[in-house]
Design goal:
Elements lengths: L2 E3 L21 E2 L4 E5 L5 E5 L10 H4 L4 H5 L1 H10 L6 E7 L2 E10 L2 E8 L7 H15 L5 H16 L3 E7 L5 E8 L10 E2 L6 H9 L2 E4 L7 E6 L19 H9 L4 E9 L2 E10 L7 H41 L8 H7 L2 H5 L5 E6 L2 E6 L7 H11 L4 E4 L10 H4 L4 E6 L4 E7 L4 E6 L6 E4 L2 E4 L5 E6 L8 H54 L1 H18 L5 H28 L9 E4 H11 L1 H7 L2 E4 L4 E4 L1 H17 L8 E11 L7 E9 L31 H11 L3 E6 L5 E8 L8
Protein name: histidine kinase
EC number: 2.7.13.3
Catalytic activity: ATP + protein L-histidine = ADP + protein N-phospho-L-histidine
Length: 753
Amino acid sequence: MKIRDIVNRDIVNLINCENEPIHIPGSIQPHGFLIGLTKEFKIIFCSENLSDYLSFKYTEVLGKSFKDVFGVENFNVINDSALEANVLQLKMKLENKSFQCFFHQSDDCYIFEAEPCGVKTDSVTDVYNQTLQFINYLNTTQSLKSLCEMVARETRSLTGYDRVMVYRFDKEYNGEVFAESCREDLEPFLGLHYPHTDIPVQARELYMRNVLRLIMDMDYTPVPIYTIDDGSGRNLDLSLSILRSTSPIHVEYLKNMGVGATLTISLIHQGKLWGLIACHHYSSKNLTPEIRLAAQLQGQFITSQIDVRQSNEEYEVSRKTNNALEKVTGLDLPPIMESFKIISVSPELLKLCNASGVSLYINGEVYKNGITPPVSVIPSLSDWLFEHSNDSNFATDKIIDFIPTMKSVWDRVSGVVYYSLGKNNSIIWYRTETVIEVNWAGDPNKAIIKDANGLHPRNSFAKWKQISKNRSTPWLYPELNVAAKYAHALQKQINLMLLSDEEMKYRKLSEKLKESNEELQNINWISTHDLQEPLRKIQVISSMVLFKEKDNMSENMIDSLCRMNKSAMRMQNLLADILKYTRIKNSDKAFELVDMNRILEEILFDLKDNIVDADAEIVVSDLPHVYAVPFLMKQLVSNILLNSLKYSSPDRKPLISVSVEKGVRDLNYGDSTYFKFVFKDNGIGFHQEYAENIFNIFTRLHSQNEYMGSGVGLALCRKIIQAHNGYITAKSSLGNGAVFVVYLPYKRDAEVD
């Protein structure tokens, strides 16, 4: 059996440290031993220092079962725990020695770690009392700052470390010592900042997985882990391991700070790494499992209280901004452009966000108050923010990072909150620059130093002051929340203004339309009355001339007078049809129950001469009663029948049928129910492509010489049907007659026995 170690010997430096596989170092710290087991509890990994704690070497246990090496009783303990997903702490006797053991699953292996219980064992009662006291202290803190200060103090009292810091990340993962408790003789780190490069990405990810990390002695020599060499390139993920060896870069970094031992507890809030409790000791130090657990609980207390404490701190801000919101939304303003000028100068508009200035950009007009960019720049700034935010909202405390070329903006302001109110409409709040001093633990630009031996972490952590410019104070959540609410209210104001404008336009248009209709009525009166008189005179005079002078006139003169007489008659008919068309008004006539059989009888009597002259046959089925305007129904049916008689075929006897269906539904015209009247003839027909056009006024398919008519008849039919909330269709083919279908609303109570 060939055995090899799995130590990761890839060269790690500050150039590639962000890619360092710190979860698979292949080694552990020496204050305990580690073995790795298959799912069948066969030992396939073992740390080299096994013989430092037990009577056998790693080479003697590799390939054997856990039961054979550690006994049935211990095997039963871990076998019962094998299904648990989290790290389990177990106290076990191995060769009559007490060990604190940790057991967890890693990929397809189980990892078993053991530390001797030789370190001083703290009383569980003492730890409990300290934890209870800590919980009682929680009620004495109001702000997040005071809570973190109390946690730092109590964690140091509990653990005995020389320095305990609550380390908070910003959005770029730069760190700040937010709270601290340390020995009086030590230089405080409180308020110092550390660049994000001090804790690379994969280290932050590991802090998310394993919330407690202990380095007992910074001068330790890593202990390699060995495995059976089966040629598969086997490795072991130690992400959740208690003993996992630390990155040499990290060890060098801590040694440069003079640190001898560390304890790190992750502070995870809303699924993100909010910060760390970082404990430093300036000599080697180990902790009992009870104290480790108690310290870890204190970290969990912080994260459980972050929202509560931040809410307390933000309450006063929220109260003031909401008061301002009530005042500014309570302004009773008309929906006109001048209202936005009144809004812009309201002091409450600035108090909404505790802003230095504000601008409204409404329909191309700019209204502003306080410290803002120049008026000429605001439209282009609004357009840029509209595109950048995708017609939404945007907030930053450092606008120069986004628009470095727009100097006229960031020379006046540094922070903006933008809300889109539609194209060419926006509201923007502004904040001026706040010069901030940031104290770094060493120059962040020199986080890496180079010497004859290569690249190393910095060894100077002396305070380095940086002046932060072109940045405003950050926008708080209550301020952004109130800004969003007011932007929504302002959008309503704009919509009301637009509706008011549209209503005004509609009113003016209605007035113009009313005037036009009155003019049209006057014109209609002139055309149907004043023009009738000269047409009648033309007919009378031409008839008299023909009667008296016919024998003395040439045939051409007689023909001209006849044609003039016919033209005058056509003009009279056209004027009469126009008058009928324009007088159809649904509101002017009352609907009543109309017997369509009686209507048809009257029409057939009126058209008796036309029917006889055409030798036509008209077949009528029994017709229903309908709610309609009687004279309009008579006009409708009369026009359809006259149309069929006019366009009868000379090759066959005219045949016209009239039938009806009750309760018909046509989904093409909604879900209503109709009477379906069908008028069918065997006349000359027409091409189906003209089925819609024939209902347009003055539309004719034939010349006046072929068929007399004004082109108003069928248009009049459609208008009558529309006035009755129905519709009319036509279907035909050339030479095969035509079918006109009239749909009138069906009402069951219209049926009469």
